[in-house]
């Protein structure tokens, strides 16, 4: 009875390991580390005094005796000045960046968290700061305070405050509405504890990203002000002032300007590469492979096509799937999302696929028309035949000819699948004109007719509505209208009513049932809800951890489940009208499909498990016509 | 008659409508709702999306301030800004368990927060209590030093329940606590809630759109629609003799072939 949960998903590769895979970032890090090390070690290195003049050797070229990088117009050693100058430039840039980060982030957090007038006042002040061209503003500040490194540092800090304030404020506004902030309030935490304990740690990635992407910029700005003579004052060396001094001698002794220029280039490139690397690491949108664009069809591993089906397709089946295996390859792990799935679908029949999340029911459906994103999904085996034609390995144009035409999809979340910038009428029209050679006007008439059929009131008016203007139930009706647009043979519906309210769900189910009867369309209906199955489906197949564990007619499976998983799944669903029925939870969690146990996948949670359950692979036992169970004890009472 | 544990009278709440340059029509999320929860009982609140049930729940625990109406705790009106004592007595469980756990805090720190801020326990007392809480929700103490992203939805919801239990409250408001979970996990959580209620004499306000779940768990049920309670009755009465047409529609809409086929 007690459900002590044991398994935890495997940890993702560590942050440093992922950073190490980004070769550009590592290269940038090495450059930066080398430069920084030289700058830090400057006092320890056997370098001559950077400000000691040696007029006989003025403008000595590179590699001359005693001056490895030559000497400048006063005969000062270039190598020494470069190392000391880099030290000054890096320090000023870094201090300016830290100052700007601290002040800017504080302003951003306070404005975002307090909201109302505090936000208004602070952010308008920041806007005013941003309204000036930054260099003019920096010049004005230095002009007011007088030239000098410290004043240049002030100027650069102030100019960069808005970048931090705006980035941090935007994220804070989102963070303070998070549930965990509400939970912290209910835990008795005050505003200050919430700011420092809940919000600040979640802001750090943003601050780090902004910091790493603006640091290089700030070092450039320091150099810029020094170049103009407003930063470091002679004789002190920094990269910008050295560049400025070398400018007038560019034709006589190009190395005097060239060497500090190169160092600036190296430092800024290094910082930017590292910054980009850090951003890729911490930015959640990029972390989950957001930069990878999936192909238009699921990859099919070549041996998959050759593999022939074991038992032949039923003669009257319109769709026949044999031994379908779809795997996901992620971080050198193989996730067996769908493993060895076979079924037949006949015209006018409704087949339900029941399972919990991660059971592979949606991936099965998406695999049929190659809609599983690649990467990471790959179909590694099996056969899918539609009217005798093999769909696996079909060229993309032929597959697209079937999609939305002979085989149509209805998705769970109509808001996510409808284009928000197109009217719903146009979207139905697009589906029609893609597959039928009709004019736009004819297609529109047809579209309005379809909207009428799915019982959208005032179809003619609603056709020009955008998805957000419709209710959830109406949006799903549009999804159904699109699926019906080309009078398909098969409709695959993936939890089409899960996001809907129960009264709307009842209407949508009735609609699907009527349409199926009228047109003899085959329906593959994916759901986790036995109630929905019993209302709609002729046959049902239950999936668990990527495999079919039981099949049969709906009535038989519901009356006499022959796999322990089916039985227990039914027992743990509360049924309206039977409040006294004791709920019987299934202990534990489903296994991760990248580490499946040998033998029966359900063995760890099963109350009928015996030793033999954990050995070898358990076949789907035939229990009579159309009835099967993947349980070695299926015949026992 | 004794006082109700928590009693809300004529609560109103609307959102929006306060633009600088435009006058938008405010959304009246809750209009004139009155409910009362007695000690150790479960009050179910059912309704469809947009019925105002979540707003009501958030007003009850103090995450939203009602525009008008009163909330009484054992007969005493509670202040607009809820006291620490109120938070000790009334706690909340969120619908999306994972988003209610700070991704940058370990489970230990998350569970210690209420012990620290609400009860002011010492460090060693907190350590003990945190392990007790984990045992109560059937999670292993080794998980304490892990971060929220390492947990599944059901495990995260157990942690959410443990946090709500931390300050030994008398009432927990649960906002759709199982609707994001798979059915096998949902049953685990429902059984856990029942067990905890028996063990500690807790009262629940259980918000849900799932009528069957509400019927299994609740003593009394209120049906909400468009911000109002259209019917409120003891469970057996409401489910066997619904009076309001909307309640009847709701009950008739549940796909329920299983009711007559299941023999389990």
UniProtKB/TrEMBL annotation, chain A:
ABC transporter domain span: 319-570
SMART domains documented for this protein: AAA
Bilayer-crossing regions: 24-45, 88-113, 199-220, 249-275
Domain of life: Bacteria
UniProtKB keywords: ATP-binding, Cell membrane, Membrane, Nucleotide-binding, Transmembrane, Transmembrane helix, Transport
Residue span(s) of domain ABC transmembrane type-1: 86-275
Annotated membrane topology: Peripheral membrane protein; Multi-pass membrane protein
PROSITE patterns, A to Z: ABC_TM1, ABC_TRANSPORTER_1, ABC_TRANSPORTER_2
A biological-process GO annotation: peptide transport
Chief place where the protein resides: membrane
SUPFAM superfamilies: MetI-like, P-loop containing nucleoside triphosphate hydrolases
InterPro entries: AAA+_ATPase, ABC_Ni/Peptide_Import, ABC_transporter-like_ATP-bd, ABC_transporter-like_CS, MetI-like, MetI-like_sf, Oligopep_ABC_C, OppC_N
Any one GO CC term of the record: plasma membrane
CDD domains in the cross-refs: ABC_NikE_OppD_transporters, TM_PBP2
Record bears the keyword Cell membrane: yes
Location in or out of the cell: Cell inner membrane; Cell membrane
Molecular function as annotated in GO: ATP binding; ATP hydrolysis activity
Family: Belongs to the binding-protein-dependent transport system permease family. Belongs to the ABC transporter superfamily.
Name of the molecule in the record: Peptide ABC transporter permease
Natural source organism: Skermanella aerolata
Automatic annotation (TrEMBL), chain B:
Key words of the record: ATP-binding, Nucleotide-binding, Transport
InterPro entries referenced in this protein's UniProt entry, alphabetically: AAA+_ATPase, ABC_transp_ATP-bind, ABC_transporter-like_ATP-bd, ABC_transporter-like_CS, Oligopep_ABC_C, P-loop_NTPase
GO biological process, one term: peptide transport
Source organism superkingdom: Bacteria
Subcellular location: Cell inner membrane
Topology class, membrane: Peripheral membrane protein
Chain ranges of the ABC transporter domain: 6-251
GO CC aspect terms: plasma membrane
Pfam families documented for this protein: ABC_tran, oligo_HPY
A single MF term (Gene Ontology): ATP binding
Matches recorded under SMART domains: AAA
Record family assignment: Belongs to the ABC transporter superfamily.
This protein's name: ABC transporter ATP-binding protein
The organism of origin for this protein: Skermanella aerolata
